[in-house]
Amino acid sequence: MVKIGFVGAGRIGSASAYAVLHTVECDEIVFVDIIEDIAIGEALDLSTAAVAMGRDTIINGGTDYSSLRNSDVIVISAGLARKPGMTRLDLTKTNAAIISTIMEQLNLFPGAILVLATNPVDVMTYLAFKASHKPSNEVIGMGSSHDTARLREQLLRHGLRSNTMMVGEHGDSMSLINKVDLDGINWDTLTQATKERGMEVIERKAATYYAPASCIAEIVKAIINDENALIPVSVFLEGEYGLHDVAIGVPAIIGKRGAEVVEYDLDDEELTKLRESANIIKKMLKDVSN
Fold first, then answer.
1. Catalytic residue positions, numbered
2. What is the C-alpha to C-alpha distance for residues 201 and 212, in angstroms, rounded to an integer?
3. Are 275 and 213 in a shared domain?
4. Of 5, 99, 130, 280, which is least packed with CB atoms within 10 Å of its CB?
5. What's the order of all strands across the beta sheet hosting 113-116?
6. Last residue of a domain, which of 109, 141, 173?
7. Is 187 left (phi over 0), alpha (psi -120 to 50) or beta?
């Protein structure tokens, strides 16, 4: 029996559940949200969608964390989105408190691999890992997979495909690895366009949710089906790339055990940018603790 839990039934949580329903053969989906009507409403709506898709998936929602017991994967998207006038530090502190509360509950029902989507996702992945009783491979942040999808979309607009990935912080300090020479492609310009894409979407429609939901679904699918898929994700590092005590986006093999970090042979520039990005995340963590 495959069971997927979602903590947070807002835009990203509900869109992620819908994407998972499309891509993963699961027996049960459960929403938990502090607003019971939202959790139940999304469950009811998605239950009808499941039938329309020919799925037999049982879908429930509510406020009781015990309903997540025996989940294979739990997706955490609960948290605030950044509002006008709110600093990034304000957002980080607010969502850090939310993640802390969630982890107090989830630690009562260990066993699931956790997939984080709450922003800033690298910081939240670190905090969730530290608050859990799990090995680092079982706490995964979605960020770099989303950034990589944005990058590859830019390439597709030029009629090109590449295995190039975005790594580092899910933020302004993200950077490229595994670059190859492609006719007509300026990687610096493409990187900047990738960084700006999220803000463009937010300015036009206030939030992104289809894209992160699709990335979350791919991670969940890779775990459930033990695909050993290469996906860049945020994970706590214990010496990989010379980095310690930080969660940051790096390439990883995703399967039934979670995330296994893959160490690419980075050139000096790539490694410097990754380490600079790690320092930015560490500063955010330090600021949150003050």
1. 170
2. 12
3. yes
4. 130
5. 58-62, 28-32, 3-7, 73-76, 113-116, 139-141, 229-238, 244-255, 258-261
6. 141
7. alpha
